[in-house]
Design a protein that fits this description.
Blueprint lengths: L3 E6 L14 H7 L10 E5 L5 E4 L5 H6 L14 E5 L5 H4 L11 E5 L1 H8 L12 E5 L6 E4 L2 E7 L23 E6 L4 E5 L7 H7 L4 E5 L7 H4 L21 H4 L8 E4 L13 H8 L2 E3 L5 E3 L1
Parallel strand pairs: 3-4, 4-5, 5-6, 10-11, 11-12, 12-13
Antiparallel strand pairs: 1-2, 1-14, 2-3, 7-8, 8-9, 9-10
């Protein structure tokens, strides 16, 4: 079987344009001069008939409405078999509340992420007699959808913003932030929408991959600070930036990966402008800038 992936949402939390942002990118998107992007999510399938959604963004209703392969096939039937969340961030779990209308699917996550969801009673709207919550151990393969095996593995990151205390560790290794290895009969792909650093272990894991969707939150670490939009750097938010000596473009330069795609891009990131110099530099380095609706088949 093949591996088919559709980017449902290429932007980070807030999307493009973000509802309360007047940055250059958001103004261009509102005027239709650059494409708008919804919040971080990916759909995958092995047969094109049974699909899994990786991260349920707040925009999932619109995303599913724009994905013909995921249209309802009956009165209350949808080719959605499962949903997997890679962390407890609002932009990755809020969409679960949209999926509460008695639609049966399996909800996959680590035990740590399931615990975060269980602490908030609003997620009980996902009726437990219909939605099967399945805890997945790290580095243990499981069937995500027919013909497609997934394996969760830890990547450096942090707890969700709403769980932060006075001291925040941004490079935690554990169940709170994970990547996903996707294995079909003949292909291997990886989905890592949030990552604070490329560790030697992660580098070795990704070597030889056919396809990688990777965290592209910011172009430069201080991008939002310089724009006057935040006091937080990318590192403080638990994300690698694209540019710079310790950025992802440099870090992946000598790793054998057939196709590399940036996803989870913040609304300020200049690569979201198709004609930007930064976007050209990323493409020249072998990266694809993810876009809503982009499909890749291996």
């Amino acid at each position: 079987m093949t591996l088919r992936a559709r980017i449902l949402g290429a932007a980070a939390g807030g999307g493009l344009p973000q509802w309360n942002c007047g940055c250059d990118n958001c103004k261009l998107a509102r005027s239709g001069k650059i494409p708008s992007q919804t919040q971080s999510s990916l759909a995958v399938s092995a047969d094109g008939l049974s699909w899994a959604v990786l991260n349920a963004s707040p925009d999932i209703r619109v995303q599913l409405s724009d994905a013909p392969s995921l249209f309802p096939s009956g009165l209350r039937e949808l080719p959605l078999s499962s949903v997997l969340v890679t962390n407890g961030d609002i932009d990755h779990v809020a969409g679960l509340l949209t999926l509460r209308e008695m639609q049966a699917f399996k909800l996959f996550a680590t035990a740590g992420i399931h615990e975060v969801l269980a602490q908030n009673p609003i997620f009980e709207a996902l009726n437990s007699t219909v939605v099967d919550r399945v805890s997945i151990a790290l580095d243990q393969p499981f069937e995500l959808v027919p013909g497609l095996t997934a394996t969760l593995f830890p990547v450096p990151g942090k707890v969700p913003l709403y769980l932060e205390g006075e001291t925040v560790q941004t490079d935690m290794i554990g169940e709170q932030t994970v990547g996903v290895a996707l294995q079909s009969l003949d292909s291997v792909a990886y989905y890592i929408p949030g990552c604070a650093a490329l560790t030697p272990h992660l580098r070795d894991r990704l070597e030889g991959a056919e396809l990688l969707f990777f965290d592209g939150t910011l172009w430069t670490d201080d991008e939002m600070v310089r724009a006057g939009l935040s006091q937080k750097t990318g590192k403080r938010m638990g994300h690698m930036s694209m540019d710079g000596p310790d950025g992802s473009i440099a870090a992946f330069a000598d790793i054998d990966i057939a196709r590399k795609v940036f996803v989870h891009m913040n609304n300020t990131n200049p690569v979201l402008r198709p004609d930007s110099d930064e976007g050209a530099r990323a493409r020249d380095a072998g990266w694809t800038i993810g876009q809503d609706g982009m499909e890749i088949t291996l």
